[in-house]
Design brief:
It is a single chain. By secondary structure, this protein is α+β, with helices and mostly antiparallel strands. Among the domains are: 103-183, Immunoglobulins (Immunoglobulin-like, Sandwich), CATH 2.60.40.10; 187-267, Immunoglobulin-like (Sandwich), CATH 2.60.40.10; 275-321, no CATH class; 343-372, no CATH class. The protein contains seven helices and 25 strands. The termini are far apart.
């Protein structure tokens, strides 16, 4: 037989279930496990026999105070839990993602002079404030950061050889795979010969230091073609045609620049107007003076088929020594006689002259020679 206490106990269970569903429907903040452990229903909710004693004790001592305390304590724990969750969210928002190291895409150029001063441009990503550049293990003192993707700097004097490029930021460091190569200073000492004709096309030997496979050479504003690279100190060139007569600057260029002021002189073509004296004995040895313009030590004077070198005397005049020459061979005398006889015979074969009356006239000898 169901008693009144059992009915009240069941009603309390139903009420608790309804309250639980109501809280879930209202989407109230979740109660932490610590709070849930502290707010388990008391024993008198489940034991109807203990209800009457507890109610009586509560009414006699404190009245409704225990119920109020039981109702308010869990709410305080819930509020503290909410504040703890809010502090965790703020900490997550303040934590920034880790910075990535810089990336290097290209470095231009990859060669420079050992004396320094070569402008180097680096392209990539992640070039933030405070970036540091190391070249060959040494810190570059001045770096121009154009933006987050480009920076430039000037190289410092360094010994010849390769040097690795390294970038360092707050996110880490990156080293470029291709080294930067320091080359010797590019120097042009001399050009042999030091002058030539405007037409060009002859060979020139350029001496200096630091000549590489990519070094180009210019005479004035015209580029000279490389015939052969003998070494880093000698290069054989083909002289380009000149624009006008006069001295020009010799330039050697790659990532470096070497120059020789007035290192080569273009001259007008040599013109020979006369040779004094104009006759020489066949034995040769005569010193003949040249009259003209444009003569140099590399000019050759051809006497017949034999070349003769020129030299300049103290007075600044050019001369050459006429070589010996054998006399012209003479023809045999019998052949000469036969030729003259044939010529005389043709001239003396005259027709008979006749005067206006039809008689023969003239010397009898001519008349006799004219007969057939």
């Amino acid at each position: 037989m169901t008693t009144l206490g059992d009915m009240l106990h069941r009603l309390r269970l139903i009420f608790l279930l309804l309250m639980a569903f109501g809280l879930a429907a209202c989407d109230l903040p979740k109660v932490p496990q610590s709070v849930a452990a502290d707010t388990t229903p008391p024993d008198w909710w489940l034991d109807p026999d203990a209800e009457e004693g507890s109610d009586a004790g509560a009414d006699s001592d404190t009245g409704a105070a225990p119920d109020a305390a039981a109702d308010t304590e869990p709410l305080g724990d819930v509020e503290r839990a909410d504040s703890a969750e809010g502090s965790d969210d703020t900490a997550l928002e303040d934590t920034a993602p880790p910075l990535a190291p810089p990336e290097i895409v290209s470095v231009t150029p990859l060669r420079g002079s050992t004396s320094g001063g070569t402008s180097v441009f680096v392209e990539g990503a992640g070039f933030g404030e405070g970036i540091e550049v190391f070249l060959g293990g040494r810190l570059v003192p001045r770096v121009d950061r154009i933006d987050d993707y480009t920076l430039s700097f000037l190289t410092e004097p360094s010994p010849a050889g390769p040097a690795l490029l390294k970038l360092v930021t707050a996110g880490g460091s990156t080293t470029f795979e291709q080294p930067f190569t320091f080359l010797e200073n590019l120097v042009v000492d001399a050009v042999e010969p030091a002058g030539g004709q405007l037409a060009g096309g002859y060979d020139l030997l350029v001496t200096g230091a630091g000549f590489g496979d990519a070094t180009r050479f210019f005479l004035g504003s015209r580029e000279a073609q490389v015939v052969r690279r003998i070494s880093t100190q000698e290069v054989l060139l083909e002289a380009p045609p000149g624009g006008s007569a006069g001295a020009v600057e010799v330039l050697a260029f790659d990532e470096r620049l070497g120059r020789l002021a007035d290192g080569f002189t273009y001259r007008n073509p040599a013109q020979l107007m006369a040779l004094l004296p104009s006759r020489s004995p066949t034995a040769g040895g005569l010193e003949a003076e040249l009259v003209g313009s444009g003569f140099t030590e590399r000019c050759l004077l051809y006497v017949g088929a034999e070349p003769v070198t020129l030299r300049q005397n103290a007075a600044g005049r050019w001369s050459a020594t006429v070589p010996a020459r054998s006399p012209r061979p003479r023809r045999p005398r019998h052949r000469l006689r036969r030729r003259w006889l044939r010529l005389a015979t043709r001239c003396l074969r005259l027709r008979r002259w006749r005067d206006g009356h039809g008689r023969r006239s003239g010397h009898p000898r001519y008349a006799a020679l004219g007969r057939r």
